[in-house]
Amino acid sequence: MTEERSNRQMNSQAEALLQLAEAAKSTFWGYLGCEIVHLEQEKVTISLDAQPHHLNLLNLIHGGVLASLLDNAMGLVVLQLCPDEKTVTAYMNIHYLKSSGVGILTCDAELIHRSKRTLTTQSRIYGDDGELLAWGSGSYRIVK
């Protein structure tokens, strides 16, 4: 495949993902407040402006919000690679490393392995201060 054709294909996929993100605003993605920051081949960065409603009773970002952010980012990597396939999260592992309050969270995700029916990804969440808050990995299965 020529570089020009590869770039056209990536731009087309990026446009499709941006349209998907726009359509997803009425779903949990939008309710949570996720935004796409950057897309490239096999990598995605999203962000979330964490607000008081994202906090738990200790005034810390709720673990479920972090888990959802990880899953959303890794899921976008999978959607980018399998745009015409139905995929589901088969397994997700999360390491909560540091607590945080309100502020901008940035989450990046990338593909680390692919087999015939399974994609394995990893993802990291960073706080406003650049500190690593959580690391996760996930396996996504292509369903027939």
TrEMBL record:
MF terms in GO: hydrolase activity
Enzyme superclass (EC): hydrolase
Family assignment from sequence similarity: Belongs to the thioesterase PaaI family.
Alphabetized UniProt keyword annotations: Hydrolase
Species: Paenibacillus solisilvae
Top-level lineage group: Bacteria
InterPro entries to which the protein is assigned, alphabetical: ACOT13, HotDog_dom_sf, PAAI_dom, Thioestr_dom
Name recorded for this polypeptide: PaaI family thioesterase
Listed Pfam families: 4HBT
EC number: 3.1.2.-
Domain (Thioesterase) ranges: 59-133
